[in-house]
Amino acid sequence: MEEQIKHVASRQKRFFIGFWLLPVILIVVGETDGDWVGRYAADVRATYFAETLTILLTAICVPVSLKLFAWVLTRKIDKVSLPEALRLYSFWSKVRLALLTLPVLVGFAVYYLMLSNKGVLCALIALTASLFCLPGEGRLRKELHINKEEV
Q1: According to the lineage, what is the superkingdom (predicted)?
Q2: Is residue 148 one of the residues assigned to a domain?
Q3: Tens of pLDDT along 69-104?
Q4: pTM of the model
Q5: SS3 (DSSP) at 44
C-alpha cells in the first residue's frame, strides 16, 4: 500500500509540473511565433467578447475547482476503502487542474490574439489558484487521513 501512495503522489507531481509547463510553452510560442499575435487586436467586438468570456471562465473555474475537490473529498473519497480513495483522489486532482487549465489556455490566447492584458491577468489568477493544489505525499496523507503506522 505504501508503494501505491508514493506512486499516486509522484503522478500528481508530474501532472502539476505539466500544468505549469503549459503556460511556459504558450509564452515561448507567443513571443517567438509572431504571425498570429495581435490578429484580432483591432476588432473591438471580438476583443470585448473574448475578454468577457475569459473573465467569466476564470470566475467560474477557480472557485469550482477548489470547492468541488473539497466537497468530493468529504462526501465521496472519505467514505471508501484506501485503494479506491487513492484512485478517486488522483482522478479528482486531475479534474481540478483541468478546470484551472481552461482559464490559463483561454487567458493566454486572448492575451496574444487580442493583445489584451485582461487575458493574461485571468491566466495568472488561475495559475495562482493552482498553488492551493500543490501536490505531495504529505498532503495526500493528510487529506486522506493516512498515518504511516497504519499502512
Answers
A1: Bacteria
A2: no
A3: 889 998 998 899 999 999 999 999 999 999 999 999
A4: 0.90
A5: helix
